[in-house]
C-alpha cells in the first residue's frame, strides 16, 4: 500500500473537503433545529426514509453505539415520527420505520438544505457527474478489501 500523499495540492484538497463538511454539518444542525430535532435525530430520520433499519444497522451507518441509537429512536417515536415494527424476515428483530409525519418531516428538512444545492447548481450536469464519480472513487478507496 502506498503511503498517503502529503504534497501541497493534497493538503489543499483535504482542507477544502474539511471546510465543505463543516459547512454542511452546521447547516444540517440549523435545519434540524428548525424542525425541533437534534442533528442525530435528523440523520436517523433521513436514513429511515431510504429503508427501514434495525438499531444495530443504524448504529453502523452513524458509527456510534447501538444504545445511543435506541435513545434517539425512542425520542423520535415519542414524537410520532418513527415506529418500531417486527422484521418480516426475523420476528426477533425490530425495525425502525418512519411514520407518514416522519417521512414528511425528513423531506421538508432535506428540501431546506441550501448549502449543498446552491453551489452545486453552479456546476453543469457534466461537472456534477465528474464530481460525483470522483467522490465515489475516493470513498471506494477507503473501503477495506
TrEMBL record:
Domain named HTH marR-type: residues: 10-140
Keywords linked to the UniProt accession: DNA-binding, Transcription, Transcription regulation
Coiled coil: none
Domain of life: Bacteria
SMART domains: HTH_MARR (SM00347)
Alphabetical list of InterPro entries matching this protein: HTH_MarR-typ, MarR/SlyA-like, Tscrpt_reg_MarR-type_CS, WH-like_DNA-bd_sf, WH_DNA-bd_sf
Gene3D superfamilies noted in UniProt: Winged helix-like DNA-binding domain superfamily/Winged helix DNA-binding domain (1.10.10.10)
Residues annotated as signal peptide: none
Protein name stated in the entry: MarR family transcriptional regulator
Species assigned in the record: Streptomyces albipurpureus
